[in-house]
Amino acid sequence: MRWTKQLIPTLREVPLEAEIASHQLMLRAGMIRRLGAGLYTFLPLGFRALKKVEAIVRQEMDRAGALEVLMPALHPREIWDRTGRYDVLSEVMFKIEDRQGRHLVLGPTHEEIITDLVSREINSYRQLPRNFYQIQTKFRDEIRPRFGLMRAKEFIMKDAYSFDVDWDAAEKSYQAMYEAYQRIFARCGLRTRVVEADTGAMGGKSSHEFMVLAESGEDGLVECGPCGYAANLERAEGVTRGETVFEDADRENELVDTPNMRTIEEVSGFLKSPPARLIKTLIYRADEKPVAVLVPGDRDVNELKVARALGCRKLELADDATIEEATGAPVGFAGPVGLDLPLYADKKLRGYRGAITGANQADRHIVHVDLERDVRISEFHDLTYARNGDGCPRCDGTLVEKRGIEVGHVFKLGTKYSEQLGALYLDPEGKQQPAVMGCYGIGVSRTLQAVIEQRHDKDGIIWPISIAPYAVEVLMINAQDAETRRVAEQITETLEKQGVEVLMDDRDERPGVKFKDADLVGVPIRVGIGERSLAKGAVELKIRGQSDKAKEVPLDQAVAEIQGAIRQLYEELNASA
RNA sequence: CGGGGCGUAGCGCAGCCUGGUAGCGCGUCAGCUUUGGGAGCUGAAAGUCGCCGGUUCAAAUCCGGCCGCCCCGACCA
Length: 577
Prior knowledge:
Blueprint: H1 21-28, E1 32-36, E2 39-42, H2 44-63, E3 67-68, E4 74-76, H3 77-81, H4 85-88, E5 94-97, E6 103-106, H5 111-121, E7 130-139, E8 154-164, H6 167-187, E9 192-197, E10 206-213, E11 219-224, E12 230-232, E13 254-257, H7 264-270, E14 279-286, E15 289-296, H8 303-310, E16 315-317, H9 320-327, E17 343-346, E18 355-358, E19 364-369, H10 371-374, E20 379-381, E21 399-414, H11 416-421, E22 424-426, E23 432-434, E24 436-443, H12 444-454, E25 456-457, E26 460-461, E27 472-476, H13 482-497, E28 502-505, H14 511-521, E29 525-529, H15 531-534, E30 538-543, E31 551-554, H16 558-576
Parallel strand pairs: 3-7, 15-17, 17-20, 27-28, 27-29
Antiparallel strand pairs: 1-2, 4-6, 5-6, 7-8, 8-24, 9-10, 10-21, 11-12, 11-21, 13-19, 14-15, 14-16, 18-19, 21-24, 22-23, 25-26, 29-30, 30-31
This protein binds one RNA strand through residues 9, 11-17, 19, 34, 36-37, 89, 91-92, 108-109, 111, 138, 140, 142-144, 146, 151, 157, 159, 199-203, 207, 303, 316-317, 409, 411, 439, 441, 477-478, 480-481, 509-519, 528, 530-532, 540.
């Protein structure tokens, strides 16, 4: 392919709309263009790379025995009502009406659709296990789309759904997908970390996320070096090794004046006590009923954990009026002593003595609080976010906090959907059983961008050979030189005949422009054709991201060398897998 | 949805406070010169100044409303 026949609108300047490196580079390298918030067109280069990722996903899913299907993106509302998820996912679903006034949604995910299909088509244990997957566009009304393809309203996803006769069999299906995912991401040149994760609105028993470590990642995670424990911050449990008994722990509790001191910071400073000594008391509405949540003053509440501990569907911080009504004091002075609400305390507060809490009176706090002596806690749970330096819940190690981009998520779903939608089969005894399900997602378009986020330098993208839009770029240093053109065209043609994807930069531009664009676009193997080396009967070979200077290769060996370089790049990729 | 910011040529921006001819850099097109890491000169095309309304002799500029985008937060398979 000639550059002059392609559309590769590279940008010299950084577009204002892009914040993170991968987003900037996708725009600058002419891979994508924005249509609206969270909506992107793939230009030829971006689409080529995307198709490479898809091809790897297909190969590995097929290899793992999954069967490719294609389901509609548009769904009748009724199917979502059958599982109650029309309400659960209501906010993220795009809803539309057809001219008959029928209610339709644009699918944010496809559990209902595939389970409905399986309920009709699979009836016997002899037909199990089966795993169906598709690569398709998903629609989610994200509150805030950002970072280009990272969080878009419309994005490409590979989703797979496994159906098994029982939990043991389902576990095998899960393992097969887990391993397929490892291979997929390795083949994309990504270093990923697998973490325990929250199942969220998917429901189900447990799940693992595949994270691409990156500073710009939207997800926080912690990991423990010694034992390998790793979990999404939404789920991670950190063990505190901090003290729970503070000075004057044995004294009776007493009221102290704390005029206008409402925040942990203010009270901590005013009373000259570390924030950890304070007990933060937050009033929530759990399914409309007020409850109090207690956590150490230096900790943040993890509302997902609270909701799970309480078993409530809807959890929100109470408004000021509710707080005043529940505590009898203005906001900022709530405390558990004498508070007539269900009290849910974070585990780390166990044994807290000599602590400080709000007094449920304006401008007052209570000191020397002994949680066991002075308060009747309803339940202790893990209710806070883990953080850097916390103890590992599995071993003696210490947790390290990192950031990551979630590119894959595998769930053990169980029988939730199969029961609700009647995906039942007859076992050998003729008894009806619900299929045990798993579901497995890969954000395909996001994965593409994650590769760039992880593999770039100041000059541009460094594609792994496996998903590069082209494997080789043949660069005419002076496109007006006849011999340059002849050699470039001949090498390009030979390689293309051998099935190599070549981009030939035949633009009549200055060399600098073409070198810069080559680095930006990031094609792995660059073949420079210029008068200087042609005079020596050679061309110049350079691997993107490796060594600064190009290697001169005799003309008659050029194609063989290029093929060798391609092979080597694939080998390196496999070796790191 | 709350807070902040921005909307002027394809991209990046100035002009707005203090109303009066719409500008700069890059890119694009043409010509000449140049040619190994984002060239030089000359010329040219290209803008309903986000939209609607108001004030005014006159609005990119002042006022009101709306829309869009970006950032932070809340939220999120």
